[in-house]
Amino acid sequence: MKKLVAIVIFGFASTLACAEDITNAEAVAISPNVAGFSDFTDFTLFQSAFGAPLTRIAFDEVPESTIVTNQYQNEGVIFTDGDDQTVNDANFVEDGVGLNASGRIHIQFSQPAVAVGAFFPGGMTIEVFDTQGGNSLHQSADFGGGGSGHFGGVVGDTGFGFVELRDWVDDSVFIDDLVFGFGPPEGAISGCLKVTGIPLTLNVVVLIQPDEPRQLAQTDANGCYVFENPVPEKWFSIFILGTRVPAE
Q1: CB atoms within 10 A of CB 197
Q2: In this structure, are residues 143 and 169 in contact, taking their beta carbons and an 8 Å threshold?
Q3: pLDDT band at 197, cuts 50/70/90?
Q4: Residue 179 pLDDT level (bands cut at 50, 70, 90)
Q5: How far apart are CA 241 and CA 212, in angstroms?
Q6: What kind and span of H or E run contains 239?
Q7: CB-side exposure of 143: number of CA atoms within 13 Å?
């Protein structure tokens, strides 16, 4: 083991600032990273790329044959079509319950999301937009194609407020569980620390800005930290102290 006394990151706190990772995670995208987005077919890698707990909707929280619209508003999503219906089916291998879109699924987020994915049978494509009726930010690869037990997800470094899920085979998508994650609050400074792909966990992170009190955070199980209240329009330094990293 080698001891790393401090890592230092410098930046400028604007209305939305994000410190870069110290080291990049391993390449886990199945398609090239386009405009800051990557696609995943492995849920574990998707979760690792997001780097924080995800919100999961299993659709077993409501009775069968429920038309899903605003039932999950408290979780931060609204299903805007008005014809997405819960069904019980063995093809939903996660829990036997899923959503029949009768076409496509459109979801509006209450705040910018940076990760969205679903377990599904058949085929699925994900397209994310800045807002409902707005600009397309990324269209995923075509996931699945036949059978059940698939996963497809998108993680980006740009927030999005609206998503469309569609079946690229027959344009009638079914999803098992939906998973998603929101970005840090606007104005936050955040980052994730990895060395040779291993998260640096439970390390003290210090935010220093001129003439301001120091702020402390701690990296979580994924090596990630966030400072939600930096002072805008001021330079900042971030120190990661007392870290031990694996020997090569």
Answers
A1: 12
A2: no
A3: confident
A4: very high
A5: 19
A6: strand 234-245
A7: 32
For residue 88 the two structure tokens come to 């019980």
Give the CA dihedral 215, 216, 222, 224, nearest 10 degrees. 10
Contacts of 210 (CB under 8 A, 6+ apart): 234, 235
Give the Cα separation of 27 and 214 in Å (integer).
35
Judged on CB neighbours under 10 Å (0-12, 13-18, 19+), 156 is buried
Strands (E) in 81-195, as ranges, are 85-88, 97-100, 105-120, 123-129, 136-139, 143-144, 150-166, 174-175, 178-182, 189-192, 194-195
Phi and psi torsions of 110, nearest 5°? -75, -20
Cα 190 from Cα 188, distance rounded (Å): 6
This model's pTM is above 0.90: no
Q: Hey, is 167 helix, strand or coil?
A: coil
CB atoms within 10 A of CB 127: 18
Q: Give residue 97's identity as a one-letter amino acid code.
A: V
Q: What is the pLDDT of residues 74-95, one digit of tens each?
A: 999 999 999 999 999 999 999 9
CA 226 to chain CA centroid, Å, is 15
